[in-house]
Amino acid sequence: YKKVLNFIATAKSEGATILTGGRRPEV
């Protein structure tokens, strides 16, 4: 589960907001 949060944090820092359409993915 921690890996998921870490992945989200990493992706967010790399600009995942653009990939997700500008909103948080629901987990």
TrEMBL record:
It comes from the Eukaryota. This is Betaine aldehyde dehydrogenase. It comes from Trifolium medium.
